[in-house]
Amino acid sequence: MKKVKVGRNEPCPCGKTDETGKSIKFKKCCWDLVRSGKKTVVSFTRNDLISGPYKNCPSCKRPKAFGVFSPISGSNSYTRECTECHHEEHIKLPKLKKKKVVYLDQFVISNLIKLLDTSHPSHERVKNGPFGQFWKDLFIALEKASKSQALVCPDSFYHKDESSTGGIDFYLARRLYEHFSHGKTLYPSSVVERFQIQHHFEDWLNERKSTFTFNPQEIAFGQDLNEWEIGLRVSVGGPPRPDELENLKKVNASTEQQLNEIWKRWQEETVDFEARAKEEVLGLGKGTMQVMQDFVKRRVVAMQRMATDPSYKLDIDDIIPPPASELMEALMRVARVNGLSDEDLPEVIGRYLRDAEALLEVPYLKISSVMFAGLARTASLGEKKVPKSTVDVQFISSYLPYCDAMFVDKQSARLLRELPKNTPKYLRLSEFDTKIFSLSEKEDFIKYLEDIVKELPDEQMEALQDVEGDKFTEPYWSIIEHEKIRKRTED
């Protein structure tokens, strides 16, 4: 792009027209903005979309003029074009080896940002701390695996929420987690849970054994997780609104308080692990009904106040049904489709929600119940440090079956692995092949990332070299600094 001069009486380069469709003159449109320096007139040509690596043009023979015309992310082909004679060649990309789906806990994203952001207060601590070399090696390994199209690290609403409340600039966090997710976002826990439960409920009604297919495409907003990710990609959306952020903080504070109360009870009780898991899974029905009753009461009060109090400020959560309501409606739809009358719904659905052994067949409920039973066991063994939230349990329970690997915190990894010796087989989570890594297996995780790159076919790497250049896997060390510059420019 180049700055250009425009005559005062020429059509304004912004393209604005009057009511008849005639171009407005530059002097009557953007002239003052350009003279004051608030606006710049630039020329944009097709050549601005052609970039390296350059080759000699096979048509006009001009050296280093045959570049790559910017592809759109998700394309199955790309184009080379000459900047001089505009000779084109369309090149089909080879079939992509199936990518590994690897979920990264938000604490991984946060530590990588602190490593890359030299102005962050914790930069030196993370860079030179006991795990400093690991974070450097991890960024290098993730960059190579991601840019080689060996894996995708999908993001989720948990990344967004934790970025908003965890002391990390939202835009920097989003830039990094979308860098590795390529903009692929997973459904929130409530949606995954609802899908699994309604599928299981239908089988339960028909006395069939449920089987689940853990295709990650099913929980990724209809996005193809295994497409080529080269070229341009558009990112949209911003941080939570102030009211959303305030509500999120309230929920986090309430959850922390509830966990403290539950932790005290767990410390005083001695309950068998299997019995505790069943207790937790039965909490689904109790919790669902309680949430729905609370919502109905809040909505009635909100409607009354809106009708009588002009100064009342509506809380959106008082009128939008919670996930528990959506789950109950889904169960009622399934029951009706299977021939149950409205009179039978309360008894049948109630009986289903009291069937602990059946509910523990649902992957989300099984994993979450096992993890909560593990936390209760930890508390009964004398652990005084109480978790601040249940976020880790939620995202692990939702996404673990669909991922090839997950990198989580140490406590979560222990809850998934270290079960009591007498734990029955059906609670051991052995049906899930997902590899679990934490800081205790940090070297193994680096090796895992390196190995999946080594397994890629030669034609895939050769295609990437032609599009991106020989050094396409080099780490983008300045990604955070560039995002800060972009944000300052926009502001």
Write the layout of secondary structure elements.
Layout: E1 2-3, H1 31-35, E2 42-43, E3 50-55, E4 66-69, E5 77-82, E6 88-92, E7 100-104, H2 106-116, H3 123-128, H4 132-147, E8 151-152, H5 157-165, H6 170-181, H7 189-205, H8 242-268, H9 273-308, H10 323-337, H11 345-353, H12 356-359, H13 363-380, H14 391-399, E9 405-407, H15 410-417, E10 435-437, H16 442-454, H17 458-468, H18 479-490
Parallel strand pairs: 7-8, 7-9, 9-10
Antiparallel strand pairs: 1-2, 3-4, 4-5, 5-6
Task: Write structural notes for this entry.
The chain has 18 helices and ten strands. It has a four-stranded antiparallel sheet with strand order 3-4-5-6, covered by helices on one side. A four-stranded parallel sheet has the order 8-7-9-10. Strands 1-2 form a two-stranded antiparallel sheet. It starts with a strand and ends with a helix.
Structural class: alpha/beta
Radius of gyration: 28 Å
* Percentage beta strand: 5-15%
What best-fitting shape do the alpha-carbon axes yield? Answer: globular
**Strand order in space, largest sheet:** 3-4-5-6
First-to-last CA distance: 22 Å
Number of domains: 2
Query: Could you estimate the helical fraction of the residues in percent?
Result: 40-55%
Low-pLDDT runs:
none
Instruction: Give the strand tally.
Output: 10
* Secondary-structure element order, N to C: EHEEEEEEHHHEHHHHHHHHHHEHEHHH
Mean of the pLDDT scores? 89
Largest sheet: 4 strands, antiparallel
Total helices: the number is 18
